[in-house]
Design a protein that fits this description.
It is a single chain. This protein has helices spanning about 1-15, 20-30, 50-60, 70-75, 95-110, 160-165, 185-190, 195-200, 225-235, 270-280, 315-325, 340, 370-375, 430-440, 460-465, 470-480; strands at about 35-40, 45-50, 65, 90, 115, 130-135, 145, 150-155, 170, 205-210, 220, 240-250, 250, 255-265, 285-295, 300-310, 330, 335-340, 355-365, 385-390, 415-420. By secondary structure, it is an alpha+beta fold. The chain folds into three domains: about 35-135, Uridine Diphospho-n-acetylenolpyruvylglucosamine Reductase, domain 2 (2-Layer Sandwich), CATH 3.30.43.10; about 145-250, 2-Layer Sandwich (Uridine Diphospho-n-acetylenolpyruvylglucosamine Reductase, domain 3), CATH 3.30.465.10; about 255-460, Vanillyl-alcohol Oxidase, Chain A, domain 3. About 45% of the residues are buried.
Length: about 500
């Protein structure tokens, strides 16, 4: 009898004009058992009443997940397996209206807020303990206008989706090096990628951003609307609101590029590094080379030069000829290939769920002492993937003024990264300690760091890292988020 009544109620809802899928979702919503302990914005505990949570749930189109419900544990997982946090609530937003509703609920109840887009946060700040996690990962679906050379990207979309849809029309924009990275976090932090030297950072290619600010308002930021906010969103991270959509400028490129790795024995590491630094100084914008020392778990280290030449292929063969001949590689896998394939080659090595720790810094000049320390301290470990990368910058990135966007590090020649990845969580402390000790003698040769690979940096370091742009960012913070609702990030503190 109960089943018959249940079916009848759904049919009645559909006949009354309520979409059947919405009615099914409402009927399937897990009941709220009682009042819910939660964490306040500034710390300390609060209690959300059962009626308040039910009302919040009823006002969302997407699901609201609580601990113990199906999907909760999956939703709170982020890329870095070291992160194990348990939000009081997870709002899985279906669109900007759900984001607005979530921000309003957080403000009304003084809740700690974490914002998840692609979930690729190294520091894990896209999830929190006890607060409200606003999850945009279901907001997907990239749209491309090939005539206007524009891409519209929802806040939860991944870089691989942007690449794939753009390359259908022979178009592209700078979009990272790992395809399962979220477009939002990458772009708001600046946005490096294999095309950056040719087309600039991801944030340099933004035309507009849709954003929900801390007062629950939906705004569009561009050079024509809310121009000050648009400046801050390009490199200022998630400090000023939740970006629900991005409009990117696209460029003709591909779909075939000249790319792949040249692999050298570790015995040649100094020779390869010195050649790379010298060659990179005069490389054309169409060429991106990253130099990596890689030691897979339980294997001997090797040195890799990864090539991406995105211009004319015949010209590219001539440009990279010196790289192929300065020393004999173990393997030469550079060849014409689809750009979208090259963009996925690092995916497996950066798989979600492993334990990761990263230190990084920008290098304006590679001096012999930096290479001495880099090589003297390097060691492989059978239980850890150990990677050191000199990522080439310059080109179009450097031709943008330091104060043109919130991202200030335009003069850096390289981004130096030390990355460890391992499966055994009992080894977290040991591997993290090694990376910190290895990084210590390298850091003095760096100046500033990339916020998207930042983990646990002090407020003093964050302030210094924005340089002369910081006072302007504080003014924006005072205007758009004076209560610091969005502070789980490289935080710009309101005055």
């Amino acid at each position: 009898m109960q089943r018959r009544l249940f079916v009848s109620s759904l049919l009645g809802a559909a006949a009354g004009g309520i979409p059947l899928a919405r009615a099914l979702a409402a009927a399937a919503a897990t009941p709220i058992a009682g009042d819910l302990p939660a964490t306040r914005l500034a710390g300390g505990e609060t209690v959300l009443t059962r009626s308040a949570v039910k009302d919040f749930q009823a006002g969302l189109r997407g699901p609201l997940l609580l601990a113990g419900q199906d999907g909760y544990d999956r939703a709170r997982q982020v890329w870095n397996g070291m992160i194990d946090r348990r939000p009081a609530l997870i709002a899985q937003c279906s669109g900007p209206a759900d984001v607005v509703r979530s921000v309003q609920f957080a403000r009304a109840n003084d809740l700690l807020v974490a914002v998840r887009s692609g979930g690729h946060s190294t520091s894990g700040q896209s999830v929190c303990d006890g607060g409200l996690m606003i999850d945009l990962s279901a907001m997907r679906g990239v749209r491309v206008d090939p005539k206007a050379k524009r891409a519209w990207v929802p806040g939860g979309a991944l870089l691989g989706e942007l690449d794939r849809e753009s390359q259908l029309f022979g178009l592209a924009t700078t979009a990272g090096t790992v395809s399962h990275t979220g477009a939002a976090g990458l772009t708001l932090g600046g946005g490096f990628g294999r095309l950056g030297r040719r087309f600039g950072l991801s944030c340099d290619n933004l035309v507009s951003v849709d954003v929900v600010t801390a007062d629950g308002k939906f705004l569009r930021a561009s050079n024509d609307e809310n121009r000050d906010l648009f400046w801050g969103l390009r490199g200022g991270g998630g400090n000023f609101g939740i970006a629900t959509g991005f409009e990117y400028r696209l460029h003709e490129m591909g779909p075939t590029i000249l790319g792949g790795p040249l692999i050298f024995p570790f015995s040649q590491v100094r020779e390869v590094l010195e050649f790379f630094v010298e060659f990179a100084a005069t490389a054309p914008d169409e060429l991106n080379i990253d130099c990596a020392i890689v030691a897979p778990p339980g294997a001997k280290p090797m040195v890799v030069l990864e090539i991406c030449y995105s211009g004319d292929l015949a010209k590219g063969e001539k440009v990279i000829a010196p790289i192929r001949t300065f020393s004999k590689p173990l393997a030469d896998q550079v060849k014409p290939m689809p750009y979208v394939k090259l963009q996925t080659t690092a995916d497996a090595a950066n798989a979600a769920g492993r334990n990761y720790y990263i230190k990084s810094g920008f290098v304006e000049q590679v001096v012999p002492e930096l290479l001495d320390n880099l090589l003297a301290g390097y060691s492989a470990d059978p239980g850890r993937a150990t990677i050191v990368v000199l990522q080439q910058l310059g080109g179009a990135i450097a031709r943008v003024r330091t104060d043109a966007t919130a991202f200030p590090h335009r003069g850096a020649k390289f981004d130096l990264l030390v990355l460890g990845g391992w499966d055994d969580a009992s080894q977290n402390e040991r591997h993290t300690a090694w990376i910190k000790s290895y990084w210590a003698p390298l850091e003095p040769y760096t100046r500033g760091f990339y916020f998207n690979t930042s983990v646990g940096d002090s407020q003093e370091k964050i302030r210094a890292n924005f340089g002369a742009n910081y006072p302007r960012l504080v003014k924006l913070k005072d205007r758009y988020d004076p209560a610091n609702l969005f502070h789980l990030n490289a935080n710009v503190q309101p005055s």
